Amino acid sequence: MRNGKTTYPHYRTLALGLCLALGMLPLGASFAASNDNNVEWAGLFHDQGPLYDSNPEPSATQAVTLTLRTYKGDITSANIKYYDSADSQFHWVAMHWAANDATGIYDLWQGTIPASASEKYYRFQINDGSSTAWLNAAGTTSSEPTAGDFFIIPGFKTPVWMKNGVMYQIFPDRFYDGDTSNDVTNGQYTYAGCATEQHAWGSAVAANVSGCNTAVFFGGDLQGIIDKLGYIKNTLGADILYLNPIFESPTDHKYDTEDYYTVDPAFGSNALLQTLIGDIHSTGNGRKGYLILDGVFNHTGDTNQWFDKYHWWSTNGAYESQSSPWYGYYDFQQWPNSYSTFFGIGSMPKLDYGATGSAVREQIYGSSTSVMQTYLKSPYGIDGWRLDAAQYLDAGGGNGSDATNHQIMQEMRTAVKSVNANADIVGEFWGDASSWLDDGKEWDGAMNYNGFTQPVSEWICGVDEGGNSAAIPTSQFDSWLRGTRADLPGDVQQVMTNFLGSHDTSRFATRCGGDIWKTYLALIFQMTYVGTPTIYYGDEYGMQGGADPDNRRSFDWSQATTTDAAVALTQKLIGIRNAYPALRTGSFMTLLTDDTNHLYAYGRFDASNRIAVALNNDSVTHTVTVPVSQLSVTNGSTLTDLLSGIQYTVSNGNVVVSVQGHYGAILAQ
């Protein structure tokens, strides 16, 4: 297993080790280190980027050649040790010296893991005479690690468009009112004791009546999104839209679905949804785009036809009759008033997924007419689902995160991919989501609270995503990022949704005390880090907002222009990301952490480009010496800061750049 620890004997290529020890390398080789019974940890590097992994997403018939970097002449031998799930055994592959890098500072060693269909996990054993070091995704250690290995999952691929895209999240009621004729008006209906309230665009989100915040409507709709696609696709350059729930529901947030098969009338119609999807997919208004819908499948609303607590439907729901065809959809402890809910919220009765082939499983994802398959197919053709409260889907009112939940997710993946193999499945989970992501059988990615939102908030704002004091130094920030990357296969890392804030957190700009420069810094990091950058509408200009519902303010369209510095920076950063594949699927290497001056530098690189990013999380300007030779950038090379246009020449392996407070430089070769 991945966390297993071997007690098996090993072998290595003694002949190669002897040649290295005697200096018998190809002509022209020079040594930056020596065989002195000491492995130089600083020279070691491997990740599953395209320069170090020949097949990051191999088929069952493709072998995987791995490359390990060391200081030149430093080691006597190296081995790959991998666990194969097919036989539950560890295996060894001796590595051989393959080449030097462009600088002559590093050696590149290679070894090949043979092709097969089974999942595998690997680490490196690196030897310099009597000294041994181990390297895996979690880092370098002197003793053999028991966790944090790299992954090989044959046959598993995450969507290419998700790896290469930038996502924009919209809370529909608050984005833009494109059709005032469908606006929910004051007192239009009453639900759960609350009459609807129509609020003017830009006004307060809190209800006039205490306890009725979910009855506040501003009028945003699908027509509004259609009208503003040019802003999203052209002004900003984002190409993936994620919409919070759009299906019929009595509340403004619509996480209490009344009818999965009907777009809420306040948002438009099913026909208008088809128009929106067509416009998103079109290349006539920018890059081809993609649409992800919010799937609220752990629970329904109590107004759903299947439940029908308030007798809104002509049919009998589970709350009305134990003879209802939908009675088995829910888990009643004592019918009708005692039933399983989402976090004790009575208006959100929990669905009972029962056993394989149950009616709920067929209704939500299993059949050709299921909710998930309906919107993936023509005439809609959405591109993916975000799974709300995904860990809780279960049978018999359980709380999920167990074998049944994983079984449901595996079935769901099979169903989704049978309709569209390139569809994306994004799970909502606030902690370590690797249980759903580490075997290629469930989700493609997850909302990256754990590996992005929380550490970024703590490093830049000094508070967690809830606004609680939690400042961390740069070195801890880097360690946190590495640890959370190590939890996941490389292609999963590339589709994790990296957002500064969401509809469930306070706004990033508010957490950072309204300092727009901290938003600038966060945007630079977001657009150059591993994963799919995800902009929660308004974060591109520093929208303010506290906890729910204040984090769902109406969009201020007066700021949606490149005359706004933050919007202009967002546009520029997305353009940079779109122009350089290294920022999307390239390797990630830490270059510098400076806790005293709050500096962080890292590299993103592939065969075409080597990019060093320098970030200054201090309030004053600092001069940063970036060791770009670690990216195999040679002395005399020119690097251009893609933000300022200033060019720098590499000297003694470094680039020296001045970076403003709460800002950065993106240095590209």
Automatic annotation (TrEMBL):
Keyword Signal applies: yes
GO biological process: carbohydrate metabolic process
GO molecular function annotations of the record: hydrolase activity, hydrolyzing O-glycosyl compounds
SUPFAM superfamilies for this protein: (Trans)glycosidases (SSF51445), E set domains (SSF81296), Glycosyl hydrolase domain (SSF51011)
InterPro entries for this protein: GH (IPR017853), GH13_cat_dom (IPR006047), Glyco_hydro_13_lg-like_dom (IPR004185), Glyco_hydro_b (IPR013780), Ig-like_fold (IPR013783), Ig_E-set (IPR014756)
Pfam families in UniProt: Alpha-amylase, Alpha-amylase_N
Residues in Glycosyl hydrolase family 13 catalytic domain copies: 169-577
Keywords, sorted A to Z: Glycosidase, Hydrolase, Signal
Signal peptide residue numbers: 1-32
CDD domains named in the record: AmyAc_CMD, E_set_CDase_PDE_N
Protein name per UniProt: Alpha-glucosidase
Species of provenance: Rhodanobacter glycinis
